[in-house]
């Protein structure tokens, strides 16, 4: 197997580096982690553009293949490292895979008010105390409404088995829970279950002030 390298974010605040690292850990893959400081150095940025088209993180390097965009990375990993040798990180059925992609796409393109008021740093590092803005409050209501429809009562994953979409949804819910905003208890239980996974704990262990 060709060596795997993940270029990440040395600030440990990127939800998308989190996504890629969780995917790699869930697949039980050995990889080299290379955290980059921002702004990315000119030489490294040029190298990323040449090989991966986009000079950004996360960037996965697998042999001669370079790839950015977290969802593309997890898709690539799920299709390259397949069962039974590796666990699934995307659902087995076409319907559940489509729903997982829908959720991941929504979380990447929506809820900007909530993401601004409750940045990832407030989850991984220091909580904030400012009240939610009206837009963030509306986003929080939408998030909770959708999550309650997605997560069956008493379950700790959206689908018949865990998927990488669960990590993304839990992180978004943690933007509320970690900052003492209102979240229904069963969604708190769901998020805490994700935070207990070895892959998430491995990521958190890199953060000096994680909690």
CATH secondary-structure class of the largest domain:
Mainly Alpha
Describe the strand arrangement of the main beta sheet, using strand numbers: 2-1-3-4
- Share of helical residues: 40-55%
The averaged pLDDT comes out at: 95
The assigned CATH architecture of the largest domain is Up-down Bundle
Unreliable stretches: none
Strand content: 5-15%
| Major β-sheet profile | 4 strands, mixed
Enter the CATH topology name of the largest domain.
Answer: Glutathione S-transferase Yfyf (Class Pi), Chain A, domain 2
Helix count equals: 10
What is the terminal separation in angstroms?
35 Å
Structural class by helix and strand composition = alpha+beta
Q: For the CA atoms, what is the radius of gyration?
A: 17 Å
Supply the number of structural domains: 2
The succession of helices and strands, N to C, reads EHEHEEHHHHHHHH
Number-wise, the strands total 4
Overall morphology: globular
Question: How would you sum up this structure, described in words?
Answer:
The protein has 211 residues and is an alpha+beta fold. The protein folds into two domains: 4-88, Glutaredoxin (3-Layer(aba) Sandwich); 94-197, Glutathione S-transferase Yfyf (Class Pi), Chain A, domain 2 (Up-down Bundle). 52% of the residues lie in helices and 9% in strands. The protein contains ten helices and four strands; from the N terminus they run E-H-E-H-E-E-H-H-H-H-H-H-H-H. It has helices at 15-26, 42-52, 70-80, 94-109, 112-117, 121-124, 134-150, 164-177, 185-195, 198-205; strands at residues 4-9, 32-36, 59-62, 65-68. A four-stranded mixed beta sheet has the order 2-1-3-4. The longest helix has 17 residues, at 134-150. The radius of gyration is 17 Å and the shape is globular. 38% of the residues are buried. The mean pLDDT is 95.
